Fold:
Amino acid sequence: MNEYTDLVDALAQSNLLPLWDRYMTLLTREPNPSDWPINWSWEALQPLIARATEEVCMADAERRVLLLAHPAFSPHPYTTSNLTGALQVLQPGEHAEPHRHTVAALRFVMEGDGATTWVDGQPCEMAEGDLILTPSWSWHEHANEGDRRVIWFDGLDLPLAHHLRSVFLEFRQRSGALERATKERTGDQRQPTSLTSVDVPASTPFHYPRASIAAALDELSRRADGSREVRYTNGANGGPVLPTLDCYALRLQSQVTTRAYRSTSSAIAVVAQGCGTSCVGDKTINWKKNDIFTIPHWHWVTHRAETDDAQLFLMTDRGLLDAMEYLRIEYE
Ligand code: GTQ
Ligand code: FE2
Structure:
């Protein structure tokens, strides 16, 4: 494009750029992910969680959280391009104070029970395998009233909220907070609905117990590749649980490889039970209970279970991509 050097210089003086010399890098033929699949083994995480529990006191931390930070996004604590995952631990007797933020979040319990998250005043018990939602701008606090530590996976739409320049955070005193919060948030339309073959009803609009997911999976017949998949749905509209976060439970048949696909949406997978292997792009990931790995967008993926009970919890941005009309899924 040397012929246009004079013109390009003149354009630059007026804050203008030519499109013709960069068209194919701005509008690529297909997505060109900057991240790659990455995994955190429970084995490696556990001693670090134990150290954080020991060394970080709740008086110093709004939340005792370890962020799953993909080096591709450094220095930002992002796990995939639109999703942040994290691990949170609460000891018996500990309490994480109420606050609310525009960033939407969810919790998937990995270990323990006896903790409670209050969401806009509604108590949601936290037991292993449960999913709890804290929608954008909903008040939430966590307390462990049980007798053992509770560890959960936090999923957040933080990268998106940053990109959209829409982060707000507010604190409040605890006294009387629960009662007021319940009355305050009257605009919420979420209601549980009846069970269908693929949708999971919430016991409260914010709480999806493990047993209801298991029951929904039991009701499904296997797909051609042996897998069964349930989408956690918003009781009010049957869509994704939150506008920006869309969750699935995937149960695999032992020794059967799932049909390969790639999608413009990304996922963070938490191993809910069993063990197996996933191939994501060029990477082969062997996994067992509580391991976490990413499925970046536009990477081919297959799963294969080694045990009968293998199940993945998948947090994705699929509903978001779908709403934007950017969702594309290809099958092999
Ligand atoms: O538990 O409220 O992992 O506000 C990040 C931000 C958890 C929480 C996170 C949060 C929370
Ligand atoms: Fe929070």
Remarks:
- The pocket of fe (ii) ion (ligand 2) is lined by residues 99, 101, 105, 140 (CB under 6 Å).
